[in-house]
Amino acid sequence: MRGRALITLGSGARVVVEGPADLSIVDDNRLRLDKGRLGATVPTQAVGFTVDTPLGEFVDLGTEFTLDLTTATTCKLYVFTGLVEVRPQRGGGRPFQVAQTQAVSYDSATDAAELIPIGDGEKLDL
């Protein structure tokens, strides 16, 4: 996929995907993102909305966020409101949470998450 697409899932979660991207809808409250960038706005009834990636699961806990898969083993997660839990794919990785107004660069190969600044262009408008 190239360009942008707006998706509203059955749960009410709204997602904008920016291509090039490789995305599939798993169910009413779950997507699979293998490459690309997405922004999500998740209402209260859709808490638990999950984005599956090769790096792990990104689980919404009532939020608005942008997820950018930068390489096969790294991503950037920007949380604008609410909270997102990251559940690493690799066996030794511990889940961690990223809170409102925080952003991290996560490397699944080393299981390292580093705080990064949130720039003006990180939020994908729906």
In short:
With 126 residues, this protein is mainly β. The chain has strands at 4-8, 14-27, 30-41, 50-53, 56-60, 64-69, 74-81, 83-88, 96-99, 102-107, 112-115.
- Report low-confidence residues grouped into runs of 5 or more: none
For the largest beta-sheet, the strand count, sense and barrel status come to:
11 strands, mixed
What's the helix count? 0
Please identify the structural class as seen in this structure. mainly beta
Rg over CA atoms, rounded to whole Å, is 13 Å
Order of helices and strands: EEEEEEEEEEE
**Average predicted confidence as pLDDT:** 94
What's the topology here?
Blueprint: E1 4-8, E2 14-27, E3 30-41, E4 50-53, E5 56-60, E6 64-69, E7 74-81, E8 83-88, E9 96-99, E10 102-107, E11 112-115
Parallel strand pairs: 3-4
Antiparallel strand pairs: 1-2, 2-3, 3-6, 4-5, 5-8, 6-7, 7-10, 8-9, 10-11
Characterization of this structure:
By secondary structure, the protein is mainly beta. It contains no helices and 11 strands. The protein has strands spanning 4-8, 14-27, 30-41, 50-53, 56-60, 64-69, 74-81, 83-88, 96-99, 102-107, 112-115. Strands 1, 2, 3, 4, 5, 6, 7, 8, 9, 10 and 11 form an 11-stranded mixed β-sheet that branches. A hairpin with a 5-residue loop joins strand 1 and strand 2 (14-27). The protein is globular and about 35 Å long. The model has no long low-confidence stretch (mean pLDDT 94).
